[in-house]
């Protein structure tokens, strides 16, 4: 399918969902009252942003009621407006100092699919100056997901996993949704992590191979680390932590190299937002790897972009200058 058709269908669904909810609740809001804000990664270029705007207009959103906003900008706006007593770093430093005139801060936006990093300096008029071009990529949460997928393949075999994804797409998605929730919550203090694995996957494996899944696990590196009870899979924290190794190393290496750039010298603050930033493992690694930096993590960092976009819709932030692509 054409990408434009897919994107516009998704936006049209959310548009319809909102309008239906407003009508059901009797909010008294009609569509002409709404300003729509669509957020995009800072790394996207102008043609990509224009593509998103085109998709939104095709989905029924009026172009003069639409704003396209960069995710790190709106995340910063959310944190700037958050009650300062709740916006604290690990060292107990209040976060409002991050957004004072002349301060420089790095936005580390770690999502489920990608990591975007942008560095800003607050200008005297409180506008933002981009100090270094946005960077990042598929560095973060998807690497953890891939490690988890490889574990499933070792347990059940690639052919079974592929057939399961084709014939039971709902159950297949549920596995990763369950893992996503655990990924954001896991810490190194737990002994075991419990996942729900659909019975349909075990039944397919046993039907295809003639073996019980417990017998298969004995022949893998996970023989003493993974157990099955009914539809529950118990994994040791050691195995769970191993899923994060590649992602954490890539993120830390990227930030380390970025901080060496002369353009951003003097940057002492890291603002962590995005769903993956809710992970205590990632939070602790960033704090440990950059002890001289003030690491600010707002409550519910996964909602920072969403809530910041609402604020942006009411009062757009001015970017005084950007780095040309």
Features:
325 residues, alpha/beta, Nucleotidyltransferase, domain 5, 11 strands, 12 helices, globular, 3-stranded antiparallel sheet, 6-stranded mixed sheet
Question: What features would you describe in this structure?
Answer:
The chain is an alpha/beta fold. It folds into three domains: 3-69, no CATH class; 75-139 and 248-301, ATPase, nucleotide binding domain (Nucleotidyltransferase, domain 5), CATH 3.30.420; 141-242, no CATH class. It is 46% helix and 18% strand. It is built from twelve helices and eleven strands. The chain has helices at 3-24, 46-58, 71-81, 141-156, 158-167, 169-185, 199-209, 213-218, 237-242, 245-259, 280-289, 304-314, and strands at residues 36-40, 66-70, 104-110, 115-122, 128-137, 192-196, 226-229, 232-236, 269-273, 294-296, 319-321. The strands form three sheets. Strands 10-9-3-4-5-11 form a six-stranded mixed beta sheet, sandwiched between helices. It has a three-stranded antiparallel beta sheet with strand order 6-8-7. Strands 1-2 form a two-stranded parallel sheet. A hairpin with a 2-residue loop joins strand 7 and strand 8. It is globular and about 70 Å long.
